Amino acid sequence: MESRHSRYRRNSTLTDSMNSADVPSTERPAPRGENLTFRAPAFVAIAALVVLSLTGCVQRRLLIQSQPEGAFVSIDKQPVGYTPVAVPYTYHGTREIQLEKDGYKVIRVQQRIRPNWYDRFPVSLVTNNFWGREVRDERLFDFQLEPKTQPNENLLLDRANELRGNIQRGTVTAPIR
After folding, report:
1. Is 86 in contact with 63 (CB distance < 8 Å)?
2. How far is C-alpha 71 from the chain's CA centre?
3. Looking at the DSSP assignment, which residues form a beta bridge with residue 62?
4. From the CB of residue 176, how many other CB atoms can be counted at a distance below 10 Å?
5. Could you read off the pLDDT of 89-116 as tens digits, one per residue?
6. How far apart are CA 116 and CA 158, in angstroms?
7. Does pLDDT of 32 surpass 90?
8. Are 167 and 161 in contact (CB under 8 A)?
9. Minimum mean pLDDT among 9-13, 84-88, 109-113, 142-146: which range?
10. Alpha-carbon span 129 to 51, nearest angstrom
């Protein structure tokens, strides 16, 4: 009875005793480099498609205008510039927009910026990362500035006399807002 190892040994001696001339061969195996030349253009094409498909980009901008133009704008207490002004932003949410101009009332607004349908999960995953072209999200805010009203001179003098009298009596009043 033969053991498993002897059977393997006998097969290995058969292959050792045979040389390459005894084995008929119709094809010779291709060297390693020859197959790569046929696959390289396909690999480059696939790599280019992958790189181009990963070019998803969303550009978000706030466009702030005022009537009249030239008002100083600050967003979330950060100075931005003078109207008309375009400011890039990354995240949606509520922003505090303030406009100031000499001779006009200051405008301070809590402005909510809601995401569009393509900026909501799971669609945003595709539009931000894999969409083939740039997506632009521009929000326009237009403000109408109101001129400051001049206080009535008689009311102003009456208020000043009242405050002078309170100071002389030693009483303090709350400021008028």
Report:
1. yes
2. 27
3. 87, 139
4. 5
5. 888 899 999 999 999 999 999 999 888 7
6. 54
7. no
8. no
9. 9-13
10. 11
Contact 107, 145 (CB under 8 A): yes
Give the integer Cα–Cα distance in Å for 117 and 167. 61
φ/ψ bin of 103: left (φ > 0), alpha (ψ from -120 to 50), beta (otherwise): left
Which tens digit of pLDDT belongs to each residue from 49-91? 666 666 667 788 999 999 999 999 999 999 999 999 999 988 8
Helices (H) and strands (E) in the chain, counts: 4, 7
pTM equals: 0.54
- Alpha helical stretches, state H, the chain: 4-17, 32-53, 123-129, 153-169
**Omega cis (within 30) before 84:** yes
Work out the angle at residue 12's Cα, subtended by the Cα atoms of residues 8 and 13, and round it to the nearest 5 degrees: 120
d(CA 171, CA 139) in angstroms, rounded, equals 51
Contacts of 134 (CB under 8 A, 6+ apart): 57, 58, 59
Count the alpha carbons within 13 Å of 105 in the hemisphere toward its beta carbon: 11
Q: Which two structure tokens, joined as six digits, stand for 138?
A: 């521009």
